[in-house]
Amino acid sequence: VQPWLDIPDLGFSILVYTWQEDVQSGSHYQTAFSEFVWSSREELLVEKQPLLQGIKAALDDDCPPAILVNASDSIPAGAPGDNTIILEALLKAQPQSPIYLALVDPEVTECAFQAGEGAEIKVSLGGKRDTLFCEPLEISARVGYCAETTAIIEGPVFSGSIVNLGICSVLHVGELSIVVTSKSFPGHDPSIYRSVGLCVESAQAIVVNSAIHYRANYRSVSKNFVLLDTPGASTSNFSKLPYRRIQRPIFPLDFFG
Q1: pLDDT 10s digits, 19-54
Q2: Tens digits of per-residue pLDDT, 134-145?
Q3: How many other C-beta atoms can be found within 10 angstroms of the C-beta atom of residue 21?
Q4: What is the pairing mode between strands 225-229 and 66-69?
Q5: Residue 144 in 3-state DSSP?
Q6: What would the pLDDT profile of 80-128 be if each residue is shown by its tens digit?
Q7: For residue 233, with 0-12 CB atoms within 10 Å meaning exposed, 13-18 middle and 19 or more buried, which class applies?
């Protein structure tokens, strides 16, 4: 089940099919599978770093690029893709080496397109879809690349798939390059950055909006994955979600051990 669903039936079930004359054996396997899943439950929990700690580790990394994993805003998991939590922290950190980040904001891409490459613009960026976990950020930036864009997935997951990013712009704020798309995108592949002329190998850190597939598709770029504990619609830190309809108690919210 998608764990972000706030529904009464949230949970898991074990269903075993068997021949009618072998019902006892089916019941045995049902019990065995259930016990195995329950005994393994803590192995499913993901350890993540606090946001500021993870960013500092990435900025101090002497073997870049570090991959800052933002699983909490993973579009394929149903998140909006315009969460500004990490962007805000990076702006405050004022990195001295190139950092790449991507999010969805059709209004800003249109503004950048109208202004043209090289223009200085002031925009309210992100936080328009995700109004629960973040707010828009007021930024001043220089418009770099700006055009209708497609990306071709490079890594093994969905390899060769063509992704229409719509109007896409790159906003530069110091060493921070923000890729802003007008259409949603799968954040697990470096082609999202390469399609707008950014060299991922030259970055100090790259933010990826992905929960799983980034490991396969970025492994040729870096093996240094920094998993960030951030609020967002697809977070794996379920204690940060405002569940109201699920049945309690439920793991991992209510008990461990």
Answers
A1: 887 888 888 889 999 999 999 988 888 889 999 999
A2: 999 999 999 999
A3: 7
A4: parallel
A5: strand
A6: 999 999 999 999 999 999 999 999 999 999 999 999 999 999 999 999 9
A7: buried
Select from 1, 12, 70, 51 the least CA-distant residue to 214. Answer: 70
H or E element in which residue 167 lies: strand 162-173
Q: Please, which residues have CB within 8 angstroms of residue 22's CB and are 6 or more apart in sequence?
A: none
26 within 8 A of 18, measured Cβ to Cβ = yes
Number of H helices, E strands in the chain: 6, 9
For residues 118 and 169, give the distance between their C-alpha atoms in angstroms, rounded to a whole number. 11
Tell me how far apart the alpha carbons of residues 232 and 227 are, in angstroms, rounded to a whole number.
Answer: 14
* Angstrom distance (rounded) from CA 215 to CA 222: 9
pTM confidence score = 0.88
- Contact predicate 161/152, CB 8 Å: yes
Task: For residue 128, give the nearest of 100, 102, 107 by alpha carbon.
Answer: 107
